[in-house]
Amino acid sequence: MSSADLLVSCRGVALTFGRGPTAVVAVHGADLDVRCGDRLAVVGPSGSGKSSLLHLLAGLERPTSGTITRPGLHGPRDIGLVFQADSLIPALDVTENTALPLVLAGRPQEETRRRVGEALDVVGATGLADRLPDEISGGQAQRVAVARVLAQAPRLILADEPTGRLDHATGARVLDALLAAADRTGAALVVTTHDPAVAARLTLRRGMRDGRLLAPETAEAPDPRGSLS
Question: Any idea where the ABC transporter domain is (predicted)?
């Protein structure tokens, strides 16, 4: 790939919370490139720094040291985020939650309606369109969160433990939706996970331990509909 394919580049990136003897180094000197079309899993146990690294990639945290450049991104709207925790707005129904980034961006109403309908269809949530978040399951809510990202059409999708609170079957459907969203938009996809079965469905893998990003692993492209069980 050429340099034009580079979306995000991290060089020697560190993130420290606090100061003095109580300081906690969440990320130590990470080097990472994310390019167009990447399907990357960052794998490690809880507390290994995965979420902190994802927040750095997203621009939600600023590095304590090192540099992050985003040559292939043109602002926050090029980044779509899916979190492990519930991220839907309780007072908005599924359609309104999915449409929110487009409404905030001032997209025309007809375009918004079309993109929301297509996104809900891709993740299999069309039948949930009029429901409020407290009327759907956790797995359904995660698929709606993916639909919201898909409607946004970002160049980079970052998903932080998106299956962490779900059973295997539901988690597989959410991962199906993420992969479909990335394929549909042409986005790169970065997923943090502690589950090797989730990581196995992505073609690139980086382990993370004690805040340190390990050497890359690669694999043949897996079946995008493979099971997590």
Answer: 8-229
pLDDT (tens digit per residue) in 166-175 = 888 889 999 9
Please name the residues in contact with 21: beta carbons below 8 A apart, sequence gap of 6 or more: none
Tokens of 147: 């639909």
Are 10 and 67 a contacting pair, CB within 8 Å?
yes
d(CA 188, CA 130): 30
18 domain residue, yes or no: no
- The answer to whether the CB of 180 falls within 8 A of the CB of 143 is no
CATH at 54: 3.40.50.300
Strands 79-82 and 156-160: parallel
Residue 42 structural domain? 37-62+76-218
100 assigned to some structural domain:
yes
> pLDDT tens across 132-161, in order?
999 999 999 999 999 999 999 999 999 999
Say how many Å lie between the first and final Cα of the chain, rounded. Answer: 34
Residue 67 lies in a domain: no
In-domain check, residue 22:
no
